[in-house]
Amino acid sequence: xxxxxxxxxxxxxxxxxxxxxxxxxxxxxxxxxxxxxxxxxxxxxxxxxxxxxxxxxxxxxxxxxxxxxxxxxxxxxxxxxxxxxxxxxxxxxxxxxxxxxxxxxxxxxxxxxxxxxxxxxxxxxxxxxxxxxxxxxxxxxxxxxxxxxxxxxxxxxxxxxxxxxxxxxxxxxxxxxxxxxxxxxxxxxxxxxxxxxxxxx
Length: 201
Hints:
Layout: E1 5-9, H1 19-32, E2 37-41, E3 46-50, H2 57-71, H3 79-83, E4 88-93, H4 102-119, H5 122-126, E5 128-132, E6 136-141, H6 144-158, H7 164-178, H8 189-196
Antiparallel strand pairs: 1-3, 2-3, 4-6, 5-6
Helix pairs in contact: 6-7
């Protein structure tokens, strides 16, 4: 029986400069502690995740997201908290909808970023950090509620029919209702802030 394997291509221009030096200690060993095998092929610019006999789809998803974070240029220090679910992460694929021009989609994408970052200041309100690429949006946060809300905004704001303002205000109300004392949103906030302090993107 073949062991499920996932390959992730990365750019040497994007990954953390010292990642290869800490790979065994801070990446490979962390994955191994969860029954997973992860290798980096520098020549092919590829990370390979082997799941072995692990059937837990949630740990596999977290592992794949952790590799996505490394491909975005963040340090290996994010890997362990993501696998332990101390930090939540999602990688949201971005594709231009059929029938939409490149110019229109690019304008919509820029408008989305401006509203998310500046008009509604959702990174600050939801304690999250978002990295934007042409092919994907990577979000890291202190809570599952925040990553889910960002994913909903991306799907509806870029590909759906609900105006950004309506969806953002609805999600803000939902999170505030669910987490009135901000206990969920601020869980592991100190760890999150310490990791953000080392970000150089």
